[in-house]
């Protein structure tokens, strides 16, 4: 067996042992097809007030600018789909499923660091960096290039027989490996995600205007939520899973096996009025190491007031 095949087999086996669903590998190179697409998306200001998305344009498109001598991008998927008993009921105020448990940044970074250390022990000197939403890396594009799925009309990566309820992470390394190839798009004529989006954020199939997404308004936007969005969020107070929940491929989603992604025991049992009366103490207890801390207590209270139609939460963002 050639060393590249041997190394590749070791990495994929070790990734599975660490709990990753899938591991795919692609050559580290300039993303030629993505360059005009990204430029056009930014020019239309679909990043809203997420100014960081316009930063490091070149680095987003070329991993060799992030890691000296980069040769391979190792893409990994980690399931976060919660078991039925861990899910919030439909009649309460809801947070996106990815944020139920411990912040994925911590969980995945630990696993990736272990994988890189194991590679260095098994293979020898391997230089690389781990990435979990922590740098300008186009994770869905790399995962698609390495055959882990296709990018659907809702702009999420979708994997046959699995769906899309997973995190994507990368290891960019200076090691030559065997590379996987992309798979075809299986969205077909389905437009369920486009039709279901209450804020029309999916402006065209495969194009999501980030500045219209419920997740943007409830997590990224620090200002008042615009008046014209009133009544469009349903009961989503942090993030939104609508375009994934309606996707037919997610009928294949199976509960994750990661204990750290389990929610606080109280989370599935809180009613809408419990959320309206949430104290700072309860917030801190429920979301001690959670991604919900991104919006903070005051941010979550703003969102709760907005989705429950309390007038002081509704403003406009005109300056």
TrEMBL record:
Subcellular location: Cytoplasm
GO annotations of cellular component type: cytoplasm
Binding residue positions for [4Fe-4S] cluster 2: 197, 213, 240, 243
Domain 4Fe-4S ferredoxin-type: start-end pairs: 175-207
Binding site for cob(II)alamin: 60, 133, 154, 157, 168, 215, 240-241
Record field: catalytic activity: epoxyqueuosine(34) in tRNA + AH2 = queuosine(34) in tRNA + A + H2O
Cofactor requirement: cob(II)alamin; [4Fe-4S] cluster
HAMAP family: QueG
Assembly with partners or alone: Monomer.
Role according to the record: Catalyzes the conversion of epoxyqueuosine (oQ) to queuosine (Q), which is a hypermodified base found in the wobble positions of tRNA(Asp), tRNA(Asn), tRNA(His) and tRNA(Tyr).
Name the UniProt record assigns to this protein: Epoxyqueuosine reductase
Organism: Hymenobacter aquaticus
């Amino acid at each position: 067996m050639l060393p590249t095949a041997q190394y590749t087999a070791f990495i994929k086996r070790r990734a599975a042992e660490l709990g990753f669903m899938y591991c795919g590998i692609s050559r580290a190179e300039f993303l030629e097809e993505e360059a005009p697409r990204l430029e056009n998306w930014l020019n239309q200001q679909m990043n809203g007030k997420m100014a960081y998305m316009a930063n490091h344009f070149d680095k987003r498109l070329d991993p060799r600018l992030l890691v000296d001598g980069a040769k391979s991008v190792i893409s990994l998927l980690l399931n976060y789909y919660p078991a039925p008993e861990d899910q919030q009921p439909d009649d309460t105020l809801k947070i996106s499923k990815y944020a139920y448990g411990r912040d994925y940044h911590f969980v995945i970074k630990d696993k990736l660091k272990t994988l890189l250390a194991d590679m260095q022990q098994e293979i020898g000197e391997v230089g690389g960096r781990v990435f979990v939403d922590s740098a300008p890396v186009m994770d869905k594009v790399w995962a698609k290039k390495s055959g882990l799925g296709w990018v659907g009309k809702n702009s999420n990566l979708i994997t046959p027989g699995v769906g899309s309820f997973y995190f994507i992470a990368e290891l960019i390394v200076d090691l030559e490996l065997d590379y996987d190839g992309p798979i075809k798009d299986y969205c077909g004529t389905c437009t369920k995600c486009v039709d279901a989006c209450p804020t029309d954020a999916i402006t065209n199939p495969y194009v999501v205007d980030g500045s219209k997404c419920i997740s943007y308004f409830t997590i990224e936007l620090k200002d008042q939520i615009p008046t014209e969005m009133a009544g469009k969020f349903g009961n989503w107070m942090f993030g939104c899973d609508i375009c994934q929940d309606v996707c037919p491929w997610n009928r294949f989603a199976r509960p994750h096996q990661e204990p750290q992604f389990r929610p606080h025991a109280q989370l599935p049992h809180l009613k809408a009025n419990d959320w309206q009366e949430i104290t700072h103490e309860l917030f801190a207890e429920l979301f001690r190491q959670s991604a919900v801390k991104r919006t903070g207590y005051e941010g979550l209270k703003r969102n709760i007031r907005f989705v429950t139609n309390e007038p002081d939460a509704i403003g406009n963002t005109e300056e």
